[in-house]
Amino acid sequence: MTEQMRVLVVEDDCISSEFLSSTLRCFGYAVTTASNGREALELLRTGQFRIVVSDWEMPEMNGDELCRQVRGRKWTGYVYIMLVTLFDGIDHVVEGLRAGADDFLSKPYHPEELRVRLRTAERILSLESRDVLLFAMAKLTESRDNDTGLHLDRIREYCRILAQELSNWPEYHEEIDGEYIQLLYLTSPLHDIGKVGIPDSVLLKPGPLTPEEFEIMKRHTTIGGETLQAVTLAHPEARYLSMARDIAFTHHERWDGSGYPFGLRGRDIPLCGRLTALADVYDALTSRRIYKAKMGHEEARQIILDGSGSHFDPDVVEAFRRREAEFIRVAGLLNEPSATPLPVDVPLLGTAIPALAN
Amino acid sequence: MKIADASSLTGVIDVNELMTRCLNNLDFAERMLNLFWNHCGADLAELDRAFDADDIDTARRVSHRFAGASANAAATRLHVRASQLRSELRAGSMEAARPCLHELHQEWHRFAAAMSPEQLVSETT
Predict the structure, then answer these.
(1) What residues of B are in contact with residue A23 (Cβ under 8 Å)?
(2) Comparing C-alpha atoms, which of A346, A284, A348 is closest to residue A311?
(3) Is the pTM of this model over 0.95?
(4) What's phi and psi for A351, nearest 5 deg?
(5) A214-270 pLDDT per residue, tens
(6) Chain B 21-60, CB below 8 Å of chain A: which residues?
(7) B123 pLDDT above the threshold of 70
(8) Phi-psi group of A285: left, alpha or beta (phi > 0 → left; psi -120 to 50 → alpha; rest → beta)
(9) A44: Cβ contacts below 8 Å, ≥ 6 apart
């Protein structure tokens, strides 16, 4: 016996809600209803719902805002959102999709149209195994470098926070939408995937690297980037692959052009690389390593702020400054459960940022 | 209202459309029609109060809800009137919308006559 797929219906009008719910039950779905976006968000927190069918215009929180809120949060699985609306203008379709909706349905809808669109939703959700595998690949890389603990989990949270902040800035509206944030969350853990090609003698060295070793370590960017580039060429339609490639290639580039591997400068560095760069460095600074103690937030913060315009994109630093409370919260929640206090004489590498986050 | 006996619904409800939308399930269609009848009278009263209070936000919200509900119930003419009212309110003028409210009332009277309460199968019974 197959388990019923749960659908969350969000609709303030009891007639439309009842109509939709009854239709969905006839189609074999398990239906729960919410009367506005805020109530829906609370129900989504339970993680029980993968498909949301929501009205656009509702009291307390509209459907488009619900989409934005869902896309800006960390959920255990992807939530597929279909907006149902009387609005028939293309502007609203664009606005809804930009907010992170997956599909649109106009009222009054034909039940068969609803049914086939929901089947599409189920098909797309089945692709989520892709996301799980991507994270598994990243974790596999991480397992070789067991000093980094929950590094990947924190990185994707930091990236999400930064992208979410910038998405509110008018100049980033075009570039950062709900899908972008979701993809960044998904692909940022792959930033160091090229480390699989770095010898243990370098990767696991318990101390600062020599210049020669550092040159070898730097190659993880091109190993990862080129691997993902090959896959991207085979699947050019997969936006997540091109983003993963860009992150792997460019997360050690610096705003002033002094980074590696290409020495890209300013906005020539893809935004996803600029975001991951800050997240990666902040995490390296505030995490314990075998060769260094953990740095406090204030000290790490100062290094990040000092790096604005040289190491980091000033906009990304400003986003960090505005959301630093969330960085502190994530660092606290995802700290190393097995971490043990370091001896006091462990040397600190201070501001040697490239070596820290390599 | 029992749809099978409802020749009086002709002109106010597109019965074929309603049946299609209710997956040709007569119980489902009757339940929806009665729900529409029970709730939309209250919506119309709320619209009147919003116009009296010059409260355009409430009027917009309720007209939007009415338009959606009437579309769902295949109440074609009511849907047209409610959509006109909604459009005028979205354009921002209560005064320009007032004739639309009047026309919606007239259409509602036609609908109510067709649905005559003594035939109504209340959801609560």
Answers:
(1) 22-23
(2) A284
(3) no
(4) -100, 20
(5) 999 999 999 999 999 988 887 766 788 899 999 999 999 999 999 999 999 999 999
(6) 21-23, 25, 28, 31-32, 35-36, 39-40
(7) no
(8) alpha
(9) A8, A52, A70, A75, A79
CA distance A15 to chain B (A): 6
From chain A, which residues contact B within 8 Å (Cβ)?
A: 12-16, 18-19, 22-23, 26, 55, 57, 59, 86, 107-108, 110-111
SS3 A264: coil
Instruction: Look at residue B122 in the predicted model and tell me its pLDDT.
Output: 45
Model pLDDT for residues B50-78, shown as the tens digit of each residue: 999 999 999 998 998 899 889 888 999 99
DSSP string, A316-346: HHHHHHHTHHHHHHHHHHT--TT--PPPTTP
Q: CA A280, CA A355: separation in Å to the nearest integer?
A: 12
CA-CA-CA-CA torsion for A132, A133, A139, A143, nearest 10 degrees? 140
Token pair in block for residue A251: 């997360």
Please judge whether A108 and B71 are an interchain contact, meaning their C-beta atoms are less than 8 angstroms apart.
yes
Predicted ipTM beyond 0.85: no
Contact A29, A4 (CB under 8 A): yes
pLDDT for residue A170 is more than 90 = yes
